[in-house]
Design brief:
single chain; mainly alpha
Amino acid sequence: MALETCGSCLSCLLIPLALWSIVVNILLYFPNGKASYAASYQLPNYVWYFEGICFSGVMILLLAVILIALECSVFYRCCQSDSCNKTYRSFISIVLALLGVAFSGYSFIIFTLGLIHGPFCNSSDGWDYIFKDTAGGYLTDYSSWSRCTEPANVVEWNIILLSVLIALSGLQLIICFLKVAAELKRTLCGTYSGFVQAGIL
C-alpha cells in the first residue's frame, strides 16, 4: 500500500536528481575551474558521452515531467471507462519508468567505468590515462595521484564528481525500479478489483 501511495512522489524526486546530474556533469568539463582543457579536448573520453547531461539529465527530466503529467487528474481520457483510463496511464508510466531504468543504468555504468579508468592527465610520459591498468587501485593509492601534474588536482576533481554522479544515477535507477513496481501493483490490483466488481470472480 505504501509503495502504491508513494508512486506519485517518486516522479517528483527524479527532477532534482536530474538537474544535479546536469550541473555536476558540466563541472567535469572544467577541471580545476579552467575551460582551456575542454577547448583543447584534453578531457577523458567518457566526458564526451554526455551521459550525465543527456541520459541521467535531460532524458530523466523529461520522463519525470511526463510521469507527473500522467498522474494528474486532468490528463486526457483515452477511453470511456475510468478503470480503463487508469490502466492505460499505468501502462504508459511503466514503459517510461523502464526507459528511466535504461537511461540511469547506462549512466551508472559509464560513470563507474570512468572512475575505475581514471582521469586523462599530463604526466612525465605525456598526456594519457596513467591509471588505466590499476583496475581502480589508484583510488586508495593517494601517493600515486601526484603523477598527474596537469590539470592540477584533477584526480580529486574526477573522483569527487564521478562519485556524486554515480550516487545520483544510482538513486535514479532505484526510483525508476520502485516506480515500475508501484505501477505494476496498481495495474494488477486495479484489474483484479475490476473483475471482482464486474462479478467475473
